[in-house]
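Q: What does the assembled structure look like for these inputs?
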Amino acid sequence: MDLDYHALAPEIVVAATILLVLGLDVALPRRRKYWTAFAGVVGLTLAAVPLVTLALGGGPGARSMLGGGYVVDDFALVLKAVFIAGGYLVLLMSVSYIESDRYYQGEYYLLLLTSILGSLIMASSRDLITVFVGLELVTGPLFLLAGWRKGDARSNEASLKFFILGVLSTAVLLYGMSFLYGLTGSVTFEGIRTAGAGLLDSGAFRLAVLFTLIGFGFKITAVPFHFWAPDTYEGAPTPVTAYLSVGSKAAGFVGLLLLCYRAFPSVTEIWGPALWVLAALSMTLGNLTALRQDNIVRMLAYSSIAQGGFILVPFAAAAVTNDPLVIQEAASATIVYVIIYAFMNLGAFAVVIEGARRTGTSMIDGWAGMWRYAPRLAVLGAVFFFSLAGIPPLAGWYAKFAMFLAILRPGNPWTAALAVIAAVNAVIALVYYARVGKTMWMDPLPDGASDGERTARPMSGALALALGISVIFVILAGVLPFQLAGVFAEAAKVVTAGI
Amino acid sequence: MTFSDWLAEPVNWAFLALALPMTVAAVRVVTSRNVVHAALFLVLTLAASAGLFILLSAEFVAWVLVLVYIGAVIVLFLFGIMITRAPIGRETDLSHAGRWPAALASLAVLALTLWLITAVSGQVEGFDGPLPAVGVATDSAILGEGFIMRYLIPFEAVGFILLAALIGGITLARKDLTPAEEEEAERV
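A:
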């Protein structure tokens, strides 16, 4: 056995935390159940420590184990850091939300941590079996968490829709993967890449690649595989929605990055046009539908579909070129966008949780004049929504800048067309993000609302911490983006190596 | 190879003996008007597919199919029907209104699969000679070793999926206590 316990330490710590939470949940009396959240937060913090020691002491060599099926390299480390940070923020956001009602707290944190463990495994997976099991570990607990508000019919509907479409997508994905294995005789990405070069004319291989992409299309809620997302996002408890729109989506993108760049570089003429179409449809339909939403959670659901389209854009650039530097830049743009999106979207959801608690509604109109009674929350809301729109100096501008740079680099008419579509959509997106800002800052208070009533309840410390971390990241990454991008370029170099 | 050549192979007789009843049973699973009958036809379908796996020398998969699907899942179905006092017997509203589009879609999938399999046979990497494993049962020791050596991490991950599914499923399915009952339970 060639197990490298140092490289596996983050997974082992999270797994131990899951078991600890399970034990604590049994042992603790009902009013102390929030200790399980505390255990989860501490466990995730501890899990981040080996990431730092691995990044500092690892050197350039990747730590590969289990026959090359599980690799801890710069790509894996960067994404694991994002998954742990995102999970950490969601845990902090959940504390007061979950405590405020009669939810099952211990089980909730257990499932959330299990999903985080799955995303850690996905970042390191380098074969079909590990990537598939990792993806199921990410989404499996989320089917259940989406229905956590048991008494609410919309939450039940959210869970059921997500489950049925999730199972369908899993079946399609698995079908594609089984053909990949049957055709190439290999489950590792390296093996599929080598054998795939000899299967260029094989229609079956192309179909297998397409099936795999469709399977991941469901996970990243790309149009036309997005139908489940708005209802699920609206019905699920809001912290779960935040995790769905960031954690499970990022895990889907990790799988897509690994498959496209490591397993299928020989068939770019298949996945290039397919992802071009998905990107264009997701951006356009996501944004146009988001324009018409009155409910802020539904708006964020469609906006996250559109953002997923932006994240897909650089794939189309990588598909039309053979220049390794351009491909690397495209991969780097995707990774940077996923990371910045994770922080700004989690921040936006934290604002939504607090805003909904203050105003008692998630309708955008109900938030009118928020700056009068919650000025700090209104400022934070403006920061996150304008960052999502891509306004400098907030981090979102750099994500869009890197994306446009990557898509314009190949100088191909198709990529140029996609750049135009993306530019139009960036403007449309600004309209609805800015509308939330306008409602909070410029509209008068809704009738019958008194200032005193709304200021009475203070924000919970954990949620304030989550907001603080995300706002610091969003501002720092927006002011010093190139330092940040340097770190991610290493990760992109690793994932595109050998094309 | 002509059809009579194909029939001359005894193993293909076994294939026909399994595949034909399997197809009929699979159709009856969907068309049967009685839920219990549908479940029993599913048993037949699964048993025949287990037989097909034995023909492919994959006996471990075959027995897993028998143990897990026939032994546990279908029995659970039947218990579920009996315990929940769901109507047993003929039912008229089992058919979905969209059954014809659904039938068309499943025929399209069948055509696609058939095309895939005929396209694939002949160009499979490394299988141009005689199939390597014909007549030799896959040693389950190899599979077991794979689980705890090469595929250790996915194996452990599956353990966590099951843990999460079990705990989450019970939490969602159990009946919530009212606040008064909860206080009662706390005191005991």
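The first strand of chain A starts at residue 63 and ends at 65.
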